[in-house]
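Intended use. Records like the one below are meant for learning the mapping from a protein sequence to its folded structure. Do not use them to infer anything beyond what is encoded.
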Amino acid sequence: MAENKTALAALVLAATAVAVVLVTVAVQQRPTPPPAPQKYIVVIPITSPITSCWVNPLLPKILGLNSSDVAGVILYVDSPGGTLDATEALYGALKGLGKPVYAVVAGLDASGAFYISMAADEIYASPGSLVGNIGAWTIIDPRAFWTPIPLEVFPSGYDKLFGMSLFGYYNAVDKAAASFLSVVIESRGSRLKAPADLLATGRLFTAEEALKLGLIDKIGGLSEAVADMAESLGLTSYSVVSIYSYYGISPPNCSGITMAKVPLGILLNSTLTPIFYIYPGAVQIDVNASAPKYRVPQVKPTGKYVVVDLSHGNLIPGVFVQDLAARLALRNCSIAFATTGEELKSLLRNATGLIIAEPAEPYSSSSVDAIKSFLSSGGRLLVFYDPRIANSIFITTTPPSPIYLDGLLTPFGIAVMSGYLYNATAGLTPATSNWQFVSAAYVNSTELGYGRYVFFTPAAISGSGVGIYADAELLGYGPGKYAVVLQRGNITVVGTITSFLPNFVELGDNEALLNDLVKWVCP
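Structure written out for the chain above:
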């Protein structure tokens, strides 16, 4: 009996051993499942001015991020923006990417950088970040529009050299800004709480303000964005790498572009479309060019004449002087130029009028006395001050300032205010209707015709008297009714020159006003 049990036990053990062997063989023959593919969250640093030098090499790499091992893309943004062409190209590449895209602002997300952030599904910003600066700008060399085209340059058409008229150029900038604004409105959709006219001002918002306005989705940094993206995609194992590490390449070497402030010359040379989506505060404006000088004709005045002062570093566009001379000639009145203080005193003895514009140096007490004496004997003083010309980036010397007119005007109860007038209610409209143009129709002077005058960011004139007034905002002072032209006794002060230059003089009734001013200074 015992022998039978022992035999049975041996049989069971043998069968079990065979079963174990069979199971082991079966396991060894079954193919091992491949490891799960590595997933990447790819970070694209946008931490310099956006130019074609940096963007163009990156575009094919961005398109390659549609690879199956890329789970999502995060834009790490600290940039003032850049050129129009590079900005729109990068935005288009990211917008067409078939992956989730988040943006993280770590400092500055301004202008073109903010434009690119509109390609993101979610936008995060660190607490100290600044966001916005929606809009566009360009550089227009005033020498191209104030002086004739050199004879040796023969264009086939009048717009061939620049591709468009001056106002066409302005309109192109406005259209670029309007396109930018429409991208923001479309991308943010129902999340956007900010009115379009607020965004169109070009203001920068703090992260907290941007969150309330719906310009961003969350205050946070890169770690929060990565964690949220991984959770939304159900990722349990992934790696976070930069786009350069992902491809094993180095960032493009764009000399000068990675500086804290990009030189304007480099910015201009980096694009064929000189319209910029960039925060102007990030641009180093250092143009080595001088404003055009007017060549003084050596002609002794005869008969009635008006003196134009050039003895105090006055910045007067040559084309404006030529226009004044032509209009005065129609009234049988010539122009004499004072290039020194002594010459000014001498010429004033027999002059009918005196024109002073944009002085860059103070008037001596003897010159002031000569002008006072001239006025007391019935002479007329016509003063021009233009804040746009005074602050032109093409002036390499100390720019003219209203302070140099104070010694002349304040004794007569007149002062030129700093800043300029603008239309705060205008949106991104065609150039002559946008914020830079102020319409004036309030006239209470018997010597100035009534009409609709269109002034280009003029100065405001302070003091009692008659003249032309505009409802506008003065930079730094707010809204009010400000004088652009003010008459007081034998003095007329005009807060603009640009409004009478070619192109601008054709707006509204500006030409009629210029004729009235010429008639007044040489009655």
